[in-house]
Amino acid sequence: MTERISDAEHAVMEVLWKRAPLTATEVADRVADEKDWSLQTVKTLLSRLAAKAVVGTERDGRRFLYSPLVERDAYLTGVSRNFVDRLFGGKVMPLVAHLAEADELSAEDIREIEELLRELKK
Amino acid sequence: MTERISDAEHAVMEVLWKRAPLTATEVADRVADEKDWSLQTVKTLLSRLAAKAVVGTERDGRRFLYSPLVERDAYLTGVSRNFVDRLFGGKVMPLVAHLAEADELSAEDIREIEELLRELKK
DNA sequence: CGTCAGTGACTACACCTGTAGTTTAATCGA
DNA sequence: TCGATTAAACTACAGGTGTAGTCACTGACG
Question: What's the burial of A118, exposed, middle or buried (CB within 10 Å: 0-12/13-18/19+)?
Fold first, then answer.
């Protein structure tokens, strides 16, 4: 069971998944594109992530370099799994069906998914 | 924007979506199949849901009857939307692709989804 | 009529989250 | 060398969440 990552923490992780290692200041700069957070806020989030061993720290003189310890893919698999389990009884079909019925799927989406499934069957 | 429903509250909602109206005790009994919560806990959750106007209350003598005010379908659409937006940039394909790659889709799942999509295109 | 079981209302409380401010220690530039 | 800068560490604090406990009332039962 991978440690829980909160929404705010997730935004920080996205930055680190894109590029790492980074210093706290660098992370804050990049996160600033999305969120209007102070440097301190980002540092707090990094500390919490480090405390949970979701990011690793490496000393670089007076500062730290932060890197993800959890892979984005593994994380996404975990949360998706959890999501589908909790809300759709663990079955992906009802989820897709639901999105379809709610008109959340474009013709484009449908085409892409079909293609993907065709690939999978090989 | 529908009011936020927490995880614990969601378990209570599932019971009410299955059958309503119910008294607090009845809800607690049914929830007990899933969660090991005391009656008081369930009552607290019902109060919070009522305060958020996610369930409605109807007086029945000395007790209340609780019913959902939000439809399950609408709720699922909302959270699914939100989930896909936050984690997969709003595209459903990457989510399905991800679950597929992570071997979370059985051959059976694939067949069902294909069938569903075929239906959709009509 | 008095007691008790059931019910909603109110209170509790620790932990998580979002969002920082403050303190302290190290470093770099003049 | 000394002050200005910068970074990490520690502290803060309100609101949400999980998980109840307690209180006060009321109707049913003996």
Answer: exposed
Residue ranges of chain B with per-residue pLDDT less than 50: none
Strand partners, A64: A59
B29 with B50, same domain? yes
* Interatomic distance B85 CA / C22 C1' (Å): 37
Q: Is residue A107 part of a domain?
A: yes
Q: Provide residues of A within 8 Å CB-CB of chain B.
A: 7, 10, 73, 76-77, 79-81, 83-84, 86-88, 91-93, 95-102, 104-105, 109-110, 112-114, 116-117, 120-121
Name the CA dihedral angle for A53, A90, B3, A101, rounded to a multiple of 10 degrees.
130
Nearest to A20 by CA among A76, A62, A58, A52: A58
Estimate in Å the CA A9 to C1' C17 gap, whole number.
10
Tell me, yes or no, whether B64 and B91 share the same domain.
no
Best mutation target among A75, A110, A118 (most B Cβ atoms within 10 Å) is A110
Interface predicted TM-score (ipTM) of this complex, two decimals: 0.88
Based on the fold, state whether residues B49 and B90 are members of the same structural domain. no
pLDDT at B38: 97
**A68, A83, A107 — which closes off a domain?**
A68
CA of A55 to C1' of D8 (A): 16
Number of domains within chain A: 2
Structural domain contains residue A102: yes
Residues A56 and A17 in one domain: yes
